[in-house]
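Hi V.,

You were right to ask for the full record rather than a summary. Here it is.
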Amino acid sequence: MDIRLLDASDAKKYWDLRLEALEQNPEAFATSYEEAMSRENPVEGVAKNLSKEGSFTFGAFHNNDLIGVVTLMQEAPLKLRHKANIFAMYVSPKMRGLGVGNEILLEAINHAKSMKTIENLNLTVVTTNESAKKLYSKLGFKVFGTEIRALIINDIYYDEEYRVLYLKQ
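Predicted structure:
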């Protein structure tokens, strides 16, 4: 497995994996598959996002196939620059249970640590995703709140936990 920072040349592979993620685990993402499919020039949009300042998307590759991703995004406002968010974490089902999620999340955490201004890493996770919650807990993310009815999909509500990892005490 190879883990690296993605760039604009990875946009098509990222988009394909993103669509898989939205189909496989719709409860884990605010964007729906249908919304994603309705976007104009989505691969171009992804290429721009992968080049955006303050945003870092890490990908795990197996035999040149993108099998997992996670995005680290630093807050832009001056008063919030000590925080960054973990978004869009996903590992393809065929590669789960092999430590891929752990490795790409560690890469994002280590990158955040290398950015001297970041003190807090925040993320949200749907409360029914036990494997993700276990990983986040193992890596030190602590729950600081829960949003009841954070998402609704086909008339089913999903709650989300808000978690933080303090990089500096």
